[in-house]
Specification:
Elements (H helix, E strand, L loop, with lengths): L2 H18 L4 H22 L21 H32 L8 H9 L8 H5 L6
Helix pairs in contact: 1-2, 2-3
Amino acid sequence: MSLIGLAVAALLFGIGTYLILQRLLSRVIIGIGLVSHGANLLIMLSAGDPGEPPVLSEGLDLATFADPLPQAMVLTSIVITFGVTAFLLALALRSWRLTGSDVVEDDREDRRIARERPTVEEPTAEDDMHEQPTI
């Protein structure tokens, strides 16, 4: 494997993860694109050296053919990423039309639960039943 390729894949994963953790949907979309490119690069790097084209003809050794599985996995990943990106772009457009921004806000229910969460857990009667008596 190429050390430069691994470093580029790690950089794509790192920047993509940072962008996915943002609140703007546009940054999340770019982050998912970068993570998917990093995954595709990693899959292609793990496939090894490129081989001969997978066309059977006289006198060729079967061990020198290229493995089609990593190529199929990358193609599948590209299609799935395209679908997810299209869905997120539709969500961002809908958010932009409704609120004028693509910021993902906390849900009202999330805020209510955060307000009602006790800061310190208080012992209950059930906890008292399970205590061992001291001798």
